[in-house]
């Protein structure tokens, strides 16, 4: 097999740098993977595969960083979008689609008595935090160290253009450390509006971590005792663990939940949901954007959620993800390499036990990309319902080869 080359990707990137700041902004910039060993520009997708501008074909385990949950170009979702497109999408008013999607989510998600629809994950995490502040009339936000809640200034992950004041009311603690969390709450007694967490810990550049037994129950207790709003940011994991919200998979109840990726198979829709206690505060926060009510994306979201339910897609993604996780452990062992495969099967990730600087992960995933499999070196991966056993088998064959390359270069 001849290894992939990225000639046209590179040429396109040169063109891009002339007219777009940094060529490709944010986490899709080549610097966030390994420059030169990944494609930079995609051309088309079908099922669990996509093709880059050089015509190289990939099995996709990044899924557009999460939104592709059924498969690229999914017929039922695209048909729903096309049908709505014929009627129009951007009006002076919302369409009934907004109400229908809100009703669907309220029926599906136990915590949800109301739903606010946005476009991106950052829209709804920022909104949920504002709802918490409005409800409590307090300032402070507590989040876990290393967690990502979006690109907005408040969650301090944006790089550049920030000032101290953007996050002076944001405080961090170590995920799963309820004592540190409670100490922080006591230190800011009476001024903590919200504790915002992802349903389990999925930091970039790190192993994924499940909630320790009793930890989320402790968060719930602390919130109840101190009048704090408990927000779950389910933007990344939503609809890959449980259709009722990822908190249900683990068995705890937040006050507000945010969804985005996974709810519309690539169409841009997000949602903040909450229980009725927060509905008044939610009504008082000015939440809008030019495209928030666009009907095409909302129709696509309903079709996506229907399809996920109808086909029991999570069960299938769990099965395929388990096959991938177990296969990676076996192949690594057979090559004399120790790996940490972490996270739920539908959002797997792998690091190398002997790693100190991600060089093994970068070599491994770069070599995988050149052989037609996209496995990110620093960010967790995603399963989609279009992955079949044959795709996982092909991936494990590629992984086997990549482990042997890592072994040869690093020895462990
Ligand atoms: C957990 C989590 N929250 C929020 C966001 C922000 O979503 P968006 O990039 O759509 O604004 C992301 C995006 O990766 C995310 O993973």
Written overview of the protein:
- The chain has about 400 residues and is α/β, with parallel strands linked by helices.
- The chain folds into 2 domains: about 5-60 and about 310-410, Aspartate Aminotransferase, domain 1 (Alpha-Beta Complex), CATH 3.90.1150.10; about 75-310, 3-Layer(aba) Sandwich (Aspartate Aminotransferase, domain 2), CATH 3.40.640.10.
- The chain is about 40% helix and about 15% strand.
- The protein has 12 helices and 13 strands.
- The protein has helices at about 5-20, 75-85, 95-110, 120-135, 180-185, 215-225, 245-250, 280-285, 295-310, 315-335, 360-370, 390-410; strands at about 40-45, 50, 55-60, 115-120, 140-145, 170-175, 190-195, 230-235, 255-260, 270-275, 340, 350, 375.
- The protein has a 7-stranded mixed β-sheet, with helices on both faces. Strands 1-2-3-13 form a 4-stranded mixed β-sheet. Strands 11-12 form a two-stranded antiparallel sheet.
- Helix 3 runs parallel beside helix 9 and helix 5 (about 180-185) runs parallel beside helix 6 (about 215-225).
- The longest helix has 22 residues, at about 315-335.
- The protein is globular, with a radius of gyration of 21 Å.
- The chain starts with 6 loop residues before the first helix and ends with a helix.
- The structure holds pyridoxal-5'-phosphate.
Can you give me a brief rundown of this structure?
The chain has helices at residues 7-19, 75-87, 96-108, 121-136, 178-187, 215-226, 246-250, 279-284, 295-310, 313-334, 359-369, 389-410, and strands at residues 42-46, 49-52, 57-60, 114-118, 140-144, 170-173, 192-197, 229-233, 256-259, 270-274, 339-342, 349-352, 373-374. It has 412 residues and is α/β, with parallel strands linked by helices.
């Amino acid at each position: 097999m001849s290894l992939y080359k990225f000639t046209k990707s590179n040429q396109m990137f040169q063109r891009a740098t002339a007219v777009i700041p940094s060529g490709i902004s944010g986490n899709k910039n080549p610097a966030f993977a390994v420059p030169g060993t990944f494609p930079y520009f995609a051309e088309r997708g079908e099922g669990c595969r996509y093709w880059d501008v050089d015509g190289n074909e990939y099995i996709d385990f990044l899924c557009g960083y999460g939104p592709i949950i059924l498969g690229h170009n999914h017929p039922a979702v695209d048909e729903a979008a096309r049908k709505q497109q014929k009627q129009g999408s951007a009006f002076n008013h919302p369409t009934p689609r907004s109400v229908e999607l809100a009703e669907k989510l309220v029926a599906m998600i136990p915590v949800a008595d109301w739903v606010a629809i946005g476009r991106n994950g950052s829209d709804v995490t920022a909104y949920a935090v504002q709802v918490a502040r409005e409800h409590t009339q307090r300032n402070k936000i507590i989040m876990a160290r290393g967690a990502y809640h979006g690109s907005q200034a408040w969650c301090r992950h944006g790089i550049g253009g920030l000032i101290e004041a953007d996050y002076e009311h944001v405080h961090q603690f170590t995920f799963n450390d309820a004592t540190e969390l409670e100490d922080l709450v006591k230190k800011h007694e009476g001024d903590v509006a919200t504790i915002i967490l992802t349903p389990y810990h999925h930091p970039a550049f790190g192993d994924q971590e499940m909630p320790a037994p009793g930890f989320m129950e402790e968060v719930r207790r602390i919130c109840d005792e101190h009048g704090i709003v408990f927000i779950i940011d389910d933007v990344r994991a939503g609809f890959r663990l449980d259709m009722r919200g990822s908190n249900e998979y683990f068995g705890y109840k937040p006050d507000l939940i945010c969804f985005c990726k996974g709810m519309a198979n690539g169409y841009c829709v997000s949602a903040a949901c909450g229980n009725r206690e927060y509905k008044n505060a939610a009504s008082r926060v000015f939440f809008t954007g030019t495209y928030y009510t666009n009907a095409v994306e909302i129709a696509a979201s309903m079709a996506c959620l229907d399809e996920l339910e109808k086909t029991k897609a999570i069960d299938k993604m769990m099965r395929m993800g388990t096959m991938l996780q177990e296969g990676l452990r076996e192949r690594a062992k057979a090559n004399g390499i120790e790996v940490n495969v972490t996270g739920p099967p539908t959002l797997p990730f792998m690091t190398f036990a002997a790693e100190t600087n991600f060089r093994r992960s970068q070599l491994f995933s770069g070599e995988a990309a050149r052989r037609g499999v996209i496995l990110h070196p620093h960010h967790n991966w995603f399963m989609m319902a279009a992955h079949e056993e044959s795709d996982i088998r092909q991936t494990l064959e590629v992984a086997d080869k990549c482990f042997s390359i890592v072994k040869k270069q690093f020895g462990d």
